[in-house]
């Protein structure tokens, strides 16, 4: 083939391509957006950066060894910034938005957990407090 007809065909196809706005967007903008999104998610850990710590309040109404172990495990987690407080203080902090969540370990939790583990009785429940309005604002 001669170079002139090939150049004319390429020029015609490029004109058709760039006249279709949707084709241009799908060919250039969307792959860049997808690559940027996945690059931000899987960018890898930065060795010098500390992880963002989520503020959590623990209320231990039980005082048992099991409840203490739960609280100690939460405090050992490097992703959580755990403080201890009373039930009223924890509810107030969550309501004001100064903490993300509060975990209330009710009285008798340790005994009920031991009985549920060995005898199959009903499992005790922890109460988790969080402000739904604050969760929606952060998204």
Structural write-up:
The protein is an alpha/beta fold and 139 residues long. The protein has a four-stranded mixed beta sheet with strand order 2-1-3-4, sandwiched between helices. It is elongated, with a radius of gyration of 28 Å. The termini are far apart. The mean pLDDT is 84.
Task: Note the topology.
Elements: H1 3-19, H2 21-41, E1 54-60, H3 65-76, E2 80-84, H4 87-96, E3 101-105, H5 109-119, E4 127-130, H6 132-138
Parallel strand pairs: 1-2, 1-3
Antiparallel strand pairs: 3-4
Features of the shown structure:
139 residues, alpha/beta, 4-stranded mixed sheet, 4 strands, 56% helix, 15% strand
What order do the strands of the largest sheet run in, or round the barrel if closed? Answer: 2-1-3-4
Average pLDDT over all residues: 84
Question: Biggest β-sheet, characterized?
Answer: 4 strands, mixed
- Kindly estimate the percentage of residues that lie in beta strands according to DSSP: 15-25%
Distance between the termini: 58 Å
The overall strand count is 4
Give the radius of gyration. 28 Å
DSSP helix fraction: 55-70%
Order of helices and strands: HHEHEHEHEH
By secondary-structure content and strand pairing, the structural class works out as: alpha/beta
* Low-confidence sequence ranges: none
The number of helical segments is 6
Overall 3D shape = elongated
